[in-house]
């Protein structure tokens, strides 16, 4: 027996729950289902359970546009975000539409029936579902395994090695020397959390520094606006205030990188001990926002460095030893526990195999239309957020686009939409972003183009106009 729904959403995390919620609001009569590979909802916010796990975007923009974030904290912990996502699902009646332990392995489009046939692996065997529109909300990384480089001598180390993506519930770091390898959002979250919760000492070992900015964990102006305006109006005000500030900071960093670098360095210097080597440990060789900037709440990372419970070492790893890590400089770091906060493995669309009318789709040969559809692949939408702003800002826009697209198909009597390839558009890498996890996967991602609507702008205001307001029938989308 084959199940059929009008819209099939893959992934029950932040994106998938938001997608389904907007779909029920705008198209209450449409049938839909959410297929989730894991046994629970929440996606990233259930999977990651390392100490201190939290948002690296403010919650007024990481929260949904349609559901106010009412907690006072602007940078929230993982359990609070998970509760928010699950509360959204319950409020919109989505729980009964989620099918757990359903792993999508392939999807085949047939133009004659204008339907996708989706093959799914479940604990009780294989299933087939059909759907008019397939919507990938599975994120952008491999949930099964994080990225760990091939470190020399790793097998000689007698301590414990863990990756944050699969944090052991029984890991006891109290009274132990901990080395966290990495300098991204996960590392700058882990280091102060481990230092403040009983570790003897925590060292952040980085090959290259990252830009780090301290922000208040509680936004006093946001709290004041909530008291004055109420939750709904203040959510809109705070959301737009933070969009404006973050966009301005990004544009300032892109247009005047030297000035942005100088400003960030001055702020960091004021928070670190006198005489601290800021240029070695917090002054990257690349410009601000060439990679994602890390936010830390209430200077927690800098505070632990000042207290002497945490330190930063900038060096390359020569080899692991039985008792720690020997660096290229010859220095050896003693460690009881090593945390490899070394990044993610990107996995486009959950790694599913796509075919269109019997022909396999090589994702790397496609071009992304408005960064939400693939050229030549009908009624297929994907949700990928911003690298320079909150993920949910883009996820909300994608959901609005899908609802508008479905209304357009209803109005015109068409059954599908497809972004038609344009050979005149010059293909470019999907992301102009130098983070390691992106560079490792660029050859497996779709391309972007050098002109709109194929160009990825990483600009919410621009996308709001082009995705939320621009006509669906724009001369690029074809309909059948």
Describe what this molecule looks like in 3D:
30% of the residues lie in helices and 22% in strands. It contains 13 helices and 25 strands. The strands form seven sheets. Strands 1, 2, 3, 4, 5, 6, 17, 18 and 21 form a nine-stranded mixed β-sheet that branches. The protein has a five-stranded parallel β-sheet with strand order 7-16-8-9-12. A hairpin with a 2-residue loop joins strand 17 and strand 18. The longest helix is centred in the middle third of the chain and has 25 residues, at 231-255. The chain is globular.
Gyration radius, rounded:
23 Å
**Structural class designation:** alpha/beta
| Annotation, overall tally of beta strands | 25
Low-confidence stretches: none
**Major β-sheet profile:** 9 strands, mixed
Characterize the overall form.
globular
Average pLDDT, rounded to a whole number, is 94
Helix percent reads 25-40%
Number of helices: 13
Strand fraction = 15-25%
- Quote the distance from N terminus to C terminus: 28 Å
């Amino acid at each position: 027996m084959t199940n059929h729904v009008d819209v099939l959403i893959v992934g029950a995390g932040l994106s998938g729950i938001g997608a389904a919620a907007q779909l029920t609001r705008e198209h209450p009569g449409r049938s839909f289902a959410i297929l989730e590979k894991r046994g629970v909802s929440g996606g990233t916010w259930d999977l990651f359970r390392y100490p201190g796990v939290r948002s690296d975007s403010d919650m007024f923009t990481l929260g949904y546009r349609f559901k106010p974030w009412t907690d006072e904290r602007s940078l929230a912990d993982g359990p609070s975000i998970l509760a928010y996502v699950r509360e959204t699902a319950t409020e919109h009646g989505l729980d009964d539409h989620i099918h757990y332990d359903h792993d999508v392995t392939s999807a085949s489009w047939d133009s004659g029936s204008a339907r996708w046939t989706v093959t799914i692996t479940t604990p009780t065997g294989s299933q087939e579902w059909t759907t008019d529109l397939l919507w990938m909300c599975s994120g952008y990384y491999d949930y099964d395994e994080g990225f760990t480089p091939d470190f020399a001598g790793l097998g000689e180390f007698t301590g414990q090695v863990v990756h944050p993506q699969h944090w052991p519930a029984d890991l006891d770091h109290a009274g132990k020397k901990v080395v966290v390898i990495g300098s991204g959002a996960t590392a700058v979250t882990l280091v102060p959390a481990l230092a403040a919760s009983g570790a003897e000492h925590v060292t952040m070992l980085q090959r290259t520094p990252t830009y780090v900015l301290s922000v208040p964990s509680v936004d006093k102006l946001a709290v004041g606006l909530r008291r004055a305006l109420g939750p709904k109006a203040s959510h809109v005000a705070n959301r737009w205030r933070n969009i404006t500030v973050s966009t301005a900071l990004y544009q300032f960093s892109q247009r005047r990188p030297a000035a942005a670098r100088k400003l960030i360095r001055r702020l960091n210097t004021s928070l670190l001990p006198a005489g601290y080597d800021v240029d070695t440990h917090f002054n990257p060789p690349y410009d601000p926002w060439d990679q994602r900037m890390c936010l830390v709440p209430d200077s927690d990372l800098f505070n632990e460095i000042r207290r002497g419970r945490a330190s930063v070492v900038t060096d390359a790893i020569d080899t692991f030893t039985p008792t720690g890590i020997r660096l290229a400089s010859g220095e050896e770091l003693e460690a009881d526990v090593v945390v490899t906060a070394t990044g993610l493995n990107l996995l486009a669309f959950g790694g599913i195999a796509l075919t269109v009318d019997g022909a396999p789709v090589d994702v790397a040969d496609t071009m992304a239309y408005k960064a939400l559809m693939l050229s030549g692949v009908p009624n297929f939408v994907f949700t990928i957020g911003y690298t320079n702003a909150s993920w949910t800002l883009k996820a909300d826009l994608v959901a609005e686009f899908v609802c508008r697209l479905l209304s357009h198909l209803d109005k015109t009597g068409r059954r599908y939409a497809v972004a038609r390839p344009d050979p005149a558009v010059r293909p470019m890498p999907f992301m102009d972003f130098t983070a390691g996890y992106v560079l490792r996967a660029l050859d497996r991602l779709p391309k972007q183009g050098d002109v709109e609507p194929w160009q990825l702008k990483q600009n919410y205001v621009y996308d709001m106009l082009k995705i939320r307001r621009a006509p669906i029938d724009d001369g690029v989308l074809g309909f059948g």
